[in-house]
Amino acid sequence: MFWNKEIETLSRKKLEELQIDRLKKTVKKVYDKVPFYKNKFMETGIKPQDIQSLKDVTKLPFTTNDDLRANFPDGLVAVPKGQIIRLHTSSGTTGKPKALFFSKKDVDVAADQMARCLIMSGMTSEDILQNMMTYGLFTGALVMHYGAEKVGCLVIPAGPGNSERQISLMQDFGTTTLHITPSYALYLADIMESMGIDPIKDLKLKRAFVGSEPYTEETRKKIEALYDIDVYNSYGLSEMNGPGVGFECGEKHGMHLWEDNYLVEIIDPQTLLPVKEEGQVGELVLTSLNREAMPLLRYRTRDITSIIPGKCPCGRTHRRINRITGRSDDMFIIRGVNVFPQQIERILMSTQRVGKNYQIVLDALDDITVRVEISKDMFDGNMEHLVDLQKEITGKLKAEILVTPKVELLEPGSLPSFEGKAKRVIDKRKL
Amino acid sequence: MDAIKQISIFARNNPGQIERITHILAEQKINILAITIASSGEFGVIKFLVDQCEKAYECLKSEGMTVSLNDVLAIKLTDKPGGLYKVAKILRERKVNIDNAYMFVQESRKQGYLMIEVKDINKSMELLKGEKLQYLKKKDCYPRTKKPVKSSQSGK
Ligand SMILES: [Zn+2]
Asked: Rounded to two decimals, what is the model's pTM?
């Protein structure tokens, strides 16, 4: 099912024509209306008319988090104040939040692309969405709310918390779809169990949109099993309208990123050049193509992902990105190769017989050592099995990061335990 | 034919590892009958034959060590030339494949045992049935254990 079949299945050629048209308009607009961008163009000697093809996008300046903060609150707004109808903010780890402004059309575009996502997941106007995200400055709940109203389903604006009320809302109104954080989804299943409610038999849930916190494929599968539902990954950021920038279709293999609204680039965060081939991992950079109030050129999302090459069986022509595997700030370089700790983590997590704790040590000779604890329950006293395990991990890591690491197997509990933000990488080259 | 329990401990190849383990066993008054170490360089598996294996297993585990309890066969060797050959021949004839083996001398010049680790202990015991081999008996290995030692518990 499609919300806007024509746009969603537009031929690549037509889609790219639309993109270049919208890119040119966006560039002209920010050049004329946003002094910050005009100054950047002057610095590099670029004029709006230099942008003639999609490849020319690399001539444009990047926009970073720091730029958004430096222009706080409304330095990047490109329309008269009277046209702005909504403010959202995005909190950072340090300093002031980032302020994001929406015109009436922006709110509509955000809701429209959200509607595409919801229909793509199989929702219809018969569905009942319980929206358990925080309504407020954060974009998550409101954009979903507007999108679901466009689809025509009943929206229960529950907001987060108050688990017993959440559960009775689900029972009383026959909720079919949840919008929820992964940790709350797991927690709520526990609460249901303690209340003697079987989420599979006693509720009418079909699917959940799980987001606003990073979560692994294992967590997705766990939530799917607990509730017997489909969980769809989504990608969004307030700087680019909030949720619904990218969303999974029924294939559940990568998130279609709406390329009529965004120009997608994957860059090497070190060189800032585009990755050499489609499918290579790098930082996602987005240029908004359809925003009125606050268009952003080449916004560096800091999110690490890759484009999935090839066509999706669902028929949508908008390319898919992989699950976000980390932040570009975490990247390190070993023997000239860019490596993200998350690549290593993914390999370790997919390996049986090792625990969740690991450490990466980079030493003066540009060697990489991956230290991982073996799993206590899996130790069978057999030396050969351990040697095989070491070989298996080394081989998988080499295939992933192209450098042969030294793999150390450690006793469980011998690495410092990491809670929250962990220092996984020890770079002795900098000492 | 008795299967004998052997304790395996995962250890980093750091100085003091064996000291740490043997200290725990000494404090618990557990007697070590045999020890063998398999090492890959950075890590290894230390294997012990002790007189109170369940107790040793629990103690080492509660000290946070990565321990597993496995069954091994202890085949008695006659102390004369060709003693080991005789046993090895039978094992080959019966198609008992050895994963790992070591010797355990209980009393110098009198009693020795060939300790063998195999993939499937029950199958191997079945294969060796009828052969004129003698085995270390549980009662000789665990003189202070009153009750028969429970099996299972291995870290599978
Ligand atoms: Zn698709």
From this structure: 0.72
